[in-house]
Amino acid sequence: MNSPLIETKNLKKYFHTARGPLHAVDDIDVAINKGETLGMVGESGCGKSTFGRLLLRLIEPTGGKVLFKGENILEYGQKKMKDLRKEMQIIFQDPFSSLNPRMTVSEIIAEPIRVAGMIRKENDLLERVFELMSIVGLAERFVNTYPHELDGGRRQRIGVARALALNPEFIVCDEPVSALDVSIQAQILNLMMDLQASMGLTYLFITHDLSVVKHISDNIAVMYLGQCVELAPTDDLFENPAHPYTKALLASIPVPSLKHRKKLDVIQGEVTSPINPKPGCRFAPRCPRTMPECLDSVPGLKEISPGHFVSCVLFR
Amino acid sequence: MTEKLLEIRDLHVMYRTDDDNIFALNGVNLSVEKGKTIGLVGETGAGKTTTALSIMRLLPDKVGIIRQGEIFLEGRNLRDLSEADMRLLRGNNVSMIFQDPMTSLNPTHTVGEQIGEVVKLHYPELRSDAVEAKVDEMMEMVGIPAERKTEYPHQFSGGMKQRIVIAIALACNPKLLLADEPTTALDVTIQAQVLKMMNELKEKFNTSMILITHDLGVVAQICDWVGIMYAGEVIEHGTVEDIFEGERHHPYTIGLFGSIPDMTKKTERLNPIEGLMPDPSSVPPGCRFSERCPHRMDICSTDSPEVIIRGTHQIKCHLFSEPREGVCLAEEKLVKGAAS
């Protein structure tokens, strides 16, 4: 039986704004098993990236717990946290701004190793850099180039190599392919899946692209305004979406096939403000099936079939 | 028989920079029928936006140069028009929606002023209350209450800003709308709203549209025709049925389809195209795709392929030319999906 590598309990993050607390992440309980991928989807502003950063403790949560191998990392001191960071890494969305333009490829990839003090001899370090470059499919001749000389796909490969430098177990992938062209996107997705298979990596894969998340994930969490509205194994979610928001999201995707050509199903309205949210279901103002009790309280995740959780009064 | 509204013949465009000459378009042929939508698909640098800017004559001054080719709008050659005539044409007969609604609106003017500006420019005889009435009408048409016309762009969400941009583009009821990635910056539920609205408006006014996108899903949902661009050429062109259901395809098109995760079935691995687009400053002889093509033949690196036409479907690839000595027709390999 697989045990969760990383798990959150009632994780919360509120940002202070002049107009009141902004509920970026509100009470999220998810778990990711070792060697698996949790896909996290949602529209901009739903708290996906904040959640990814909370898991790595790059920002401090307002409340709740983050358990890594069963231990609450929020109680760790600085030294212990520094050791832990070798185990968890992140790949960012934009390969154009997440690489230091004044460092060469080898300096960028070597930096985490130097900081962690894992390899001290320069020769060994360079060898490790070459090894990482070959793992991610970067030719050795790029070792002394600067990021601006390379295209988006190669830059993102540097980002992957940097994340792998310390042999982490867990990687947060924050929209790693959104800024890339489709053919390059497919190359990077294949690379990430190969790496997962060969190194047993665990991913949190954050994206707004449902076709990408379907391709790479074992489980999917659907986020709406800081809350997880549905959590299910990938196939189950796409075959039997339960929450009205998930259904609307799936219906909004333009499918590249004429068989599915249809009047695009459209949900009305836009995402409401996450500042001082009203009690009740946050999707209620746009939901086609709103009922009076939707406005009372958030229903909370409830298991409707094995592993399939949904937070909606329709399933209470 | 449908009428041709726009016809582009053998368009070559170059960008002249200090270091290099960038060959952005290398012989683009394209036509748009009245009331129809053509989707231009391709990756960054394929020349989609350059095509649109050439039609509008908005290529950067002195840098972007049309080297040869003709652009006809309703039989008039746009390259013969004076700058003053072009100004009358822009916004009135042809208008353009840009990708990023956050940067294409002026932050210091209210949205009402920005919609009204186009109307005033093209209908100087209109009295100001008639202009205001037109502004109200356009706002309502794109689904925004008219009383919000006194607000500034920053007070609107991304989807609403894009609606305003569309209202500006449609204010003078253009015959041709160039939409450059109009929904790429939007969330998927908002994208669906905007696409639906654009489709309805297009039918209502019988506007022709060139939709530039890299999203084949968007193309399948709203286009009538499709042109696939690669390295400054249209390498495949046809109706949506030809492209999405036809049997024969350019190897690049197959690669493009192989790169998208298919929502309708389970795929273990994607089949992307290896390699990158050629450097546009030194265009290789022969087929521009040959370096990445899995079906490369000797002839591909020397001779540029002819456009092979079958009915409405055009493909620019040696694989489909008449069998010759040393050239095998590899059609069976080119059925979509068989690439795996």
- Cα radius of gyration of chain A in angstroms: 21 Å
Which two chains touch over the largest interface? A-B, 43 and 45 residues
Major beta sheet, strand line-up of chain B: 6-7-8-3-9-10-12-11
Largest sheet of chain A, in brief, is: 8 strands, mixed
Quickly give the structural class of chain A.
Answer: alpha/beta
> How are the strands of the biggest sheet of chain A laid out side by side?
7-8-9-4-10-11-13-12
Give the helix tally of chain A. 9
Terminal Cα span of chain A: 29 Å
Q: What is the N-to-C succession of helices and strands of chain B?
A: EEEHEEHEHHHHEHEHEEHHEE
Oligomer: heterodimer
Let me know the number of strands of chain A. Answer: 13
State the helix count of chain B.
Answer: 10
Report the β-strand fraction of chain A as a percent range. 15-25%
Helices and strands of chain A, in order, run as EEEEHEEHEHHHEHEHEEHHEE
Outline the secondary-structure elements.
The complex is a heterodimer of chains A (316) and B (340).
Chain A: E1 4-17, E2 20-28, E3 31-33, E4 37-41, H1 48-55, E5 63-68, E6 71-72, H2 78-85, E7 88-91, H3 105-116, H4 122-135, H5 152-164, E8 170-174, H6 182-199, E9 202-207, H7 210-216, E10 219-224, E11 227-233, H8 234-239, H9 244-252, E12 302-305, E13 308-310
Parallel strand pairs in A: 4-9, 4-10, 7-8, 8-9
Antiparallel strand pairs in A: 1-2, 1-3, 1-5, 5-6, 10-11, 11-13, 12-13
Helix pairs in contact in A: 3-4, 3-5, 4-5, 5-6
Chain B: E1 4-16, E2 21-33, E3 37-41, H1 48-56, E4 64-73, E5 76-77, H2 83-89, E6 94-97, H3 101-104, H4 111-122, H5 128-141, H6 158-170, E7 176-180, H7 188-205, E8 208-213, H8 216-222, E9 225-230, E10 233-239, H9 240-245, H10 251-259, E11 307-310, E12 313-316
Parallel strand pairs in B: 3-8, 3-9, 6-7, 7-8
Antiparallel strand pairs in B: 1-2, 1-4, 4-5, 9-10, 10-12, 11-12
Helix pairs in contact in B: 4-5, 4-6, 6-7
